[in-house]
Design goal:
alpha/beta, about 15% strand, about 50% helix, 7 strands, about 140 residues, Rossmann fold
Length: about 140
């Protein structure tokens, strides 16, 4: 069985915006991944904000979710409690809300693979305090 891949904001933006320097690397990583790709509402919100107010870009972001390319996993009360704990623990990094939702989701799904451009943050974050993330690309 293939683990899920956690999708962070940076690659999501790069997939939609061809002018991003990481666009080609992110497209190649997406094309080579064969398992499910999951993300959170916080990442979706952050991505929609960062692509800007133009409907064409926002529609492209939403289409990834609507056509099932990426699965959107809503937060639960338990996961939000975990997010608060993580944000406090990593406040010196600092950890933003979207990253915290991904770490909590990784713990919940028991996956350590993250599609991210945030090497600084995800090289520090740990799953359950011990396991490091495998970053793609």
């Amino acid at each position: 069985m293939v683990d899920e891949l956690l999708l962070d904001t940076g690659p999501f933006v790069a997939l939609v915006d061809r002018s991003e320097t990481a666009h080609d690397d992110c497209v190649a990583a997406l094309e080579s991944w064969t398992g499910p790709i999951v993300t959170t509402e916080a990442v979706l919100t952050e991505t929609l904000y960062l692509v800007g107010p133009q409907w064409k870009a926002q529609k492209a972001v939403l289409e990834f979710i609507l056509r099932g390319a990426f699965q959107l996993v809503p937060s639960s009360q338990a996961s939000l409690r975990r997010v608060a704990t993580l944000m406090e623990r990593y406040r010196d990094v600092p950890m933003d809300f979207a990253d915290a939702t991904l770490v909590a989701l990784g713990e919940e799904l028991e996956t350590d693979r993250v599609f991210t451009l945030d090497r600084r943050g995800f090289s520090v974050y740990r799953l359950g305090r011990r396991k490091a993330f495998q970053m793609i690309p």
